[in-house]
Amino acid sequence: xxxxxxxxxxxxxxxxxxxxxxxxxxxxxxxxxxxxxxxxxxxxxxxxxxxxxxxxxxxxxxxxxxxxxxxxxxxxxxxxxxxxxxxxxxxxxxxxxxxxxxxxxxxxxxxxxxxxxxxxxxxxxxxxxxxxxxxxxxxxxxxxxxxxxxxxxxxxxxxxxxxxxxxxxxxxxxxxxxxxxxxxxxxxxxxxxxxxxxxxxxxxxxxxxxxxxxxxxxxxxxxxxxxxxxxxxxxxxxxxxxxxxxxxxxxxxxxxxxxxxxxxxxxxxxxxxxxxxxxxxxxxxxxxxxxxxxxxxx
Length: 298
Description:
Number of domains: 2
Oligomer: single chain
Helix content: 10-25%
Mean pLDDT: 82
Strand content: 15-25%
Distance between the termini: 39 Å
Low-confidence stretches: 1-41
């Protein structure tokens, strides 16, 4: 039980502690001058984040025994090959997954008169719900890694946040005739040259699509169809692109820009376990509920 108390934290307390730490460590990194020195911040920035640059290609992508690119690796949604946060003094070029000037990404186009049920507020608050394709797409803002493990006949996809696991079969499996809806949907995969194409149907209508760009989000109909494309053009980079079709909700299919992920570079970069508890310790959650129930201004 002692381990349980250490593992589950209050979200607000964690945020306050993290904010305080960032202020102490990183605020000087953004300052042009300091009253005490009259010049730039002396000494190196903790973690060397101001020195990060985009990784080189790193050579050709490794291949499996059947000749396909091996997608195996721990991948970060940036060009640095390591975990980054928005407060770090990192070159914006390193942060981005794609350059909107070179590869613009259109916003989703919804059908006129779309019922409010498809654009309603998210019922789960700030804790993101795992599912396809949002778990992958939203990492443009969450910055969390994705780990892929490719073996003959299947690809395992693991996400630290929101905590999610997908098993993609690459053995020629087709969709069942009447699949039960799930948050990750039913996946059937095949190779098109060096690109793994994953066809996804039967996505639960309670799951909200999040594109990760511009805050766009919507709930799907039971006719949503998702096509994901994974490629590995070089050792250090993975490219992910997705198309979402939904004749009930979308006026036309929405296609993401090709988004890059970089291979983890640290030898001690290991899997972590992340939970968003939304302060659901009983007594804290009760306080929040009571506060929200009070009339505004009182």
